[in-house]
Amino acid sequence: MRNKSNVLDNKCPSCGAPIKYIPSLNKWKCEYCNSEFTLEEMQKHNNASSLENNKKEIEDNFTDYVTYTCQDCGAEIVADSETAATFCVYCGNTAILKNKLSGKFAPESIIPFKKEKKDAEIAFTNVAKGKLFVPSDFTKKENIEKIKGIYIPFWLYDIEVFGNVECSATKVKHWSTSRISYTKTDYYKLYRSGSMKFFKVPVDGSKRFGNDIMSSIEPFEYNDLVKYNHAYLSGFFAERYDVSSEEAFSDARNRALESGKKAVLDDCKEFSSKTITNNNLNTSIIDKHYVLLPVWMVNVKYKKRNYLFAMNGQTGEFIGNLPLDKKKVFLWALFVFSIVFVGIIIISYITFLGE
Fold first, then answer.
1. Sequence-ordered alpha helix ranges (H) in the chain
2. Which of 114, 147, 110, 118 is nearest to 22 (CA)?
3. How far lies 268's CA from each of 16, 95, 161, 256, in Å?
4. Strand ranges in 42-143 using DSSP code E only, listed in sequence order
């Protein structure tokens, strides 16, 4: 089937050259004439209008690929079915695929990038500081294969948790006399009933990115959410969701239930120990929101192995798996063993002299 698609390319209102969003300025800046514009100015110059382009679908290894014509150089841009913003490999201009973010795929809100590419580079070069067993040459900039700023689709849920919880708990008291030490343990059954609300529980809406990675760079500060405008995608990649709100809610529900259980246990601070033995907690959705959140993805190649790091594009939280330098581990183990061995020899010698 052939469909018509809109490809958008934000232009500088002054000179007509491609223009990008600059997080540190919270403005759009033209690299050619150095003009800067606010969102209101971009909208005033109709920089949110769309242009008709041809699109065709190609079947390849179970993935739908789509080709678009670059508005600037005429080259074909190839993207898969979930890509919403990409770049022309020839002229480097951003191609915003409007139909991918329209209708049911239209985000309500977006948190614009606050951190820039250089921040992700610095975070990577600093990630191994204080970590003894990481290879010393791992964090060299030349090991970075690619850094991409990507707007990741997220579902945000407002959830109410309600029901009742039963706990076993103890209170332990210690005292002593001049001759005897005593311990008294009292056992309790606790019951808690009520409801609590959790707002903006996030779930990653893209299958490309592991939930463990996305949850590790949380939290985002949702006060920075603004009404979605495709102009914020200029200079960045973007994905549309391929996990439905119904599918994603399962993860949000589990997170809300676990938070509810933790809140119950936190409410029992006066007890020495407490364990939930039975619960009848349920959830209901108060509201849900589809948003785009900023993430820097850093791909690193080191000794023929690939490592993936992610940075929260708003707060700068940086995570990823680090390699171990086996030589450093061995030398450290040998050093510790030597210290312990020498210590044993010295203690044995002192003991021998004392006999």
1. 39-44, 117-126, 211-216, 245-266, 326-354
2. 114
3. 64, 55, 18, 19
4. 51-53, 56-60, 63-69, 76-80, 83-87, 94-97, 109-110
Count how many Cα atoms sit within 13 Å of the Cα of residue 204 in the half-sphere of its side chain: 20
Give dist(CA 97, CA 84) in Å, integer: 5
Question: What is the rounded distance in angstroms from the CA atom of residue 175 to the CA atom of residue 184?
Answer: 9
Check whether the bond before 219 is cis (ω within 30° of 0): yes
Residue with tokens 């490309």: 208
Q: What is the pLDDT of residues 196-216, one digit of tens each?
A: 999 999 999 988 777 788 888
Domain definitions of the chain by residue range: 5-106, 141-324, 325-355
- The amino acid present at 129, given as its one-letter code, is K
Work out the pLDDT band at 54, boundaries 50, 70, 90: very low
pLDDT digits (tens, 9 = 90+) for 30-46: 877 788 888 888 887 75
